[in-house]
Amino acid sequence: MHNNIGVIFGTASEIRATLADRLKAVRLAQNMQQGELAAAAGISRGTVQNLEAKAQCSFDSLVRIAMALGVADDLSTVFARQTTSIAAMEQAAQPARRRASGPRRA
């Protein structure tokens, strides 16, 4: 299992494997078979197998699986802004940017 790999410092492949291992552990802790999870999530069993074996699936399937396992609330912190100082809190309170700025000209 890859549960001890720091998600922040891992490669994309390691991060995917870690998340897939964690979802599989949740499924097994709930004593749920892959077919049961697939049916509850509205996806194919092959999609669950592909996620667990190859750490690959669509974002939609990942969300469906998390919902079926009852861990969708854990996704609420993904990409959430974290504030660590007053300046960061003030910046976080500003309206979110809608697009990136263009290339800077010399």
Task: Give an overview in words.
With 106 residues, the chain is mostly helical. It has a single domain (12-93), classed as lambda repressor-like DNA-binding domains (434 Repressor (Amino-terminal Domain), Orthogonal Bundle), CATH 1.10.260. The chain is built from 5 helices and no strands. It has helices spanning 12-29, 34-41, 45-54, 59-69, 86-93. The relative contact order is 0.10. Mean pLDDT is 85; it is low at 1-5.
Task: Give the topology.
Layout: H1 12-29, H2 34-41, H3 45-54, H4 59-69, H5 86-93
Helix pairs in contact: 1-3, 2-3, 2-4
The major pleated sheet works out as: none
Distance between the termini: 49 Å
Number of helices: 5
The CATH topology assignment is 434 Repressor (Amino-terminal Domain)
Total beta strand runs: 0
Helix content: 40-55%
CATH class: Mainly Alpha
How many domains make up the coordinates? 1
- Average pLDDT for all residues: 85
